[in-house]
Amino acid sequence: MLKEGIQGDEWATYVMLGRVTETYHGIPYSGRPPGERSAHGSRGGHVPPGSLGKPGAGRRGTGDSILSTSEVCAMQNAETVLSILHERGKRRLPLTKLYRHLFNPQLFLLAYGRLYSNAGAMTPGVTGETVDGMSLEKIEAIIDALRHERFRWTPVKRVYIPKKNGKLRPLGLPTWSNKLVQEVVRLLLEAYYDVQFSDHSHGFRPNRGCHTALSEVAHVWKGTHWFLEGAISQCFERLDHETLLAIVGETIHDNRFLRLLSAMLKAGYLEDWRWNATLSGSPQGGVCSPILSNIYLGRLDQFVETELLPRYNRGTRRRPNPAYQEFQWAIARAKRKGDRLAVRTLRLQRRVLPSQDPNDPNYRRLRYLRYADDFLLGFSGPKAEAEEIKRQIAVFLRDTLKLELSDEKTLITHAHTEAAHFLGYELVAQHADDKLDHRGQRQVNGMIGLRAPRSVIAKKCALYMRYAKPTQRAQMLDDSDYTIVSQYQSEYRGLVQYYLLAQDVFRFEKLRWVMETSLLKTLADKHRSSVRKMARKYKATTETTHGPRTCFRVVVPRDEGKKPLVAQFGGIPLIRQQAAILVDRSPTTFTTRQNELVKRLLVGCCELCGNPGPVQVHHIRKLANLQQPGRKVKPEWMKLMSMRRRKTLVVCRPCHEAIHAGQNTVSFRR
User: Fold this and answer.
1) What gap in Å lies between CA 18 and CA 73, rounded to an integer?
2) What is the pTM for the complete model shown?
3) DSSP-derived secondary structure for 530-587
């Protein structure tokens, strides 16, 4: 199997072309210059498990090759490379030459297409470099540094963001070049590892998210008696580098790739312009941190699935409840006698008893799922065994993964009398003897109910209130009506859509009223008018899947041939949707052909002056930055970006320098 993993035809990334020099928009793919070490072999290219970071000595292993200076290599496209990695991950075959895929410019273009629209792309790290000025030449320079192993990770810039408990969470801000390389590494790792992750892992994965985890609890965890809410203390900061590299090295046998990964983890951080070493952990804010944490905590998933679940799952069905059986026989006797009144009375008395023995010693059920560093277990059995499960998990995390459970957040909660908290929801075991289905049987007992915490609603309402009454937002008085309504709707819609799985989502009606009143007061204060007049002006009706709903709508007409801009607040039915799904990460599109910005970059023509040649991409943080107050005449580049409604503009180097110099650039395109 290992030999197949090294020499399989599906793994042949390079195609020998003979004595032809190929270039791809200025990025050459030629053989190594005389005297340089081969970029396609690796010192100790095959690394057996447990020998991380140790260069192989002696002869070159099977599958390694040295290309002569007359030989040229052509790269496979990103779709092919990632598909091959995906298939090898599905078959759990090892990887031996992963590092050389970092020489593929299509992977960098794919990474660029996925990162440039993020808000953090314009946030500088320690060097001030951002996505602005991105070009094919920059990709070429990065690949050249990687090819000759001259690439060096820059320390991240450390900032702090507040947590819910009042403490501060450290956040690392890498430079743009580091983000780009990290995204390529993430694409490679995700394509290979995602198919190997547990089905019980839902965090930071394609087609999975908070709603998929909560839906699994609601639909599968029936009969749970105890919830074990688990949280790992400072998980991202305490990931052990040696353990992480050992886990990755079991399946990726490429010393150069492992050295690159190790250097990224140990790059350090700058705080108050002082360098500090990162002896453990993966910086939060790094592009690779989510996939690395999933690889690391995948060992916890394996431990629970291979050790705890088989040990604490026994029996196929609980034994019948003897008291319930007595009533069954009594009802049968009353039916034979024709005593309808006795049958009705006995059925009502039987309804308050469980049909199966809840204390059956031969029946146990343990269920598990994880979202990032938070995990949840549902157990049907005595509390003493639940305490033992918690102890075994704590021992495994401490001894194997060198992590600690958070005493503050790791709780054992009784499902019938208390509410467990997971991913912002309250989880309870429901019980209602009078809620029957069409067969006359109880239908909700033991089912897990999802509820929206009332504290969340009260906290959100407080943001729009003053002295216990809805108030206007003074900071928005200078914005347009369209912007004000859009902002209110985006805040309201995001919260309501997250809690659509809750059975009591109707409780957000209070938040809707508070936000609606605050919105109308803001508009009234802006126009020196009254709430009643603003409501009469913007009130409208919108059609939904549950019928018409009242909303407040602002319509901004535009030039001929363009649809008007429409913003509305409200119009969202507060009705539970059991199929509501929100995923954390969209599936990776393995091709760059669908990305509009990448297409424009590959054309190689300045969109401002029309000159062909090397181009760069000018980025702005948001379109509102183009509306600079006090400027009488907009420069041509501003007019062009405003007309296209794009935050990017592909320009040549002289035009880009003129833009940043504040010069009045002139468009020669006709």
Assistant:
1) 9
2) 0.82
3) -HHHHHHHHEEEEEETTEEEEEEEEEE--STTSPPEEEEEE-------TT----SBPP
